[in-house]
Amino acid sequence: MDFPLGGRAGGRIGRIVATVTSQFPPDTLESSMAYEDDVRAAVATYLDAVASGTSADIAALYADDATLEDPVGSEPKVGRDAIEKFYSALDAVTRRTELLAVKVAGTTAAFHFRVVTETGDQTITVEPIDVMTFDEQARITSMRAVWSPADLTVTDGK
Questions:
Q1: Global confidence as pTM
Q2: Residues 27, 37, 70, 156: which is the catalytic one?
Q3: Which of 5, 19, 36, 122 could form a cystine bridge with 10, CB 3.0-4.6 A?
Q4: Residue 64 bears catalytic tag
């Protein structure tokens, strides 16, 4: 495999990438890349559901026995019913999301995004980093949200 990266650092990086990718048979690498595209699409679907779907819509993206820990360190929610209950707080508010960055490796995605929630008298903004794992159908099997109350921005009014 040839990587057109110039210079000393580029040549070193090209050799590293070639070494790593050579560990995968071509059909496995292509299959992995196609699956990672499915995971990226699942992340986009999740963010769309958080922005404009119902709690049931969001929970439907999870596997039946999935876990959710939001934020990390809180009591994990287990199973689709508990996950839907967790997201039910969003049903009564207006919100929007924006994907800032996403990285996918195998069955895992880590992504940084912004969610803005309007409650009527307040606007709450947070930019968590979520780490999700996925099953063969690109359903979420686990979600851990990395953020703390110090990461919230709250403003009055719309």
A1: 0.80
A2: 70
A3: 5
A4: no
In terms of C-beta density within 10 A (0-12 exposed, 13-18 middle, 19 or more buried), how is residue 1 classed?
exposed
Please tell me the distance from the alpha carbon of residue 78 to that of residue 69, in angstroms, as a whole number.
9
Cβ–Cβ < 8 Å for 15, 67: no
Q: Which of 27, 37, 38, 46 is catalytic?
A: 46
**Segment 23-69, tens digit of pLDDT:** 554 554 455 667 899 999 999 999 999 999 999 999 999 999 999 99
Please give the single-letter amino acid code of residue 68.
L
Residue 87 annotated as catalytic:
no
**DSSP code per residue over 90-120:** GGGSEEEEEEEEEEEETTEEEEEEEEEEE-S
Q: Tell me the pLDDT tens digit for each residue of 65-84.
A: 999 999 999 999 999 999 99
Q: Round the average pLDDT of the chain to a whole number and report it.
A: 87
Whether 116 and 95 have beta carbons less than 8 Å apart is answered as yes
